[in-house]
Amino acid sequence: MGVDITAALRRAGRTRWFARLGRAVSRIDKRIQKATDGRWSVLGRPTLPHLILTTTGRRSGEPRDAALLYARDGERWVVIGSNWGQQHHPAWSGNLLADPHAAVTVGGRRVEVVAHLADDDERARLLGTLRAIWPGYDDYDARTVRELRVFVLTPAVPAG
């Protein structure tokens, strides 16, 4: 009987050591995912939904990439600024607040998006979906005093 890698990752993702490891390898992972159009990550073939979010740096004005897990909400992508449970928000979330125009790359396909911070009702509805994908978000939330930002990324040009 084979090991369910996704289930093992979801269990490990709830631990502090995994969060430390994730922070340490995230730059390498982002490069691997970008170079392979999302077909590979540091853990091999991805089994969880992931995307590359490209924002505009709020200070530099330069493109900034972040490899993130996501949930779907119809045609929209939903991401959470967990930052592995650290006390500060991830840079990409501040970039989205400063300029909501961004792009997501999923499976090698790039889509221009406009982001908005989920309001309380929307956030409550979407958190369950995000946590089903990555249960570690509960643990990250418990480690920090800040509210984890949930963003909804809507295609700039509707599909159709």
Automatic annotation (TrEMBL):
Q: Which organism is it from?
A: Cellulomonas chitinilytica
- What protein name applies here? Nitroreductase family deazaflavin-dependent oxidoreductase
Q: Provide the catalytic activity annotation.
A: oxidized coenzyme F420-(gamma-L-Glu)(n) + a quinol + H(+) = reduced coenzyme F420-(gamma-L-Glu)(n) + a quinone
Q: Which residues form the signal peptide?
A: none
Q: Which residues form a coiled coil?
A: none
A Gene Ontology molecular function term for this protein is:
coenzyme F420 binding
Name the InterPro entries on file: F420H2_quin_Rdtase, Split_barrel_FMN-bd
User: Which GO CC terms are listed, alphabetically?
Assistant: plasma membrane
Alphabetical list of SUPFAM superfamilies matching this protein: FMN-binding split barrel (SSF50475)
Q: Which family does it belong to?
A: Belongs to the F420H(2)-dependent quinone reductase family.
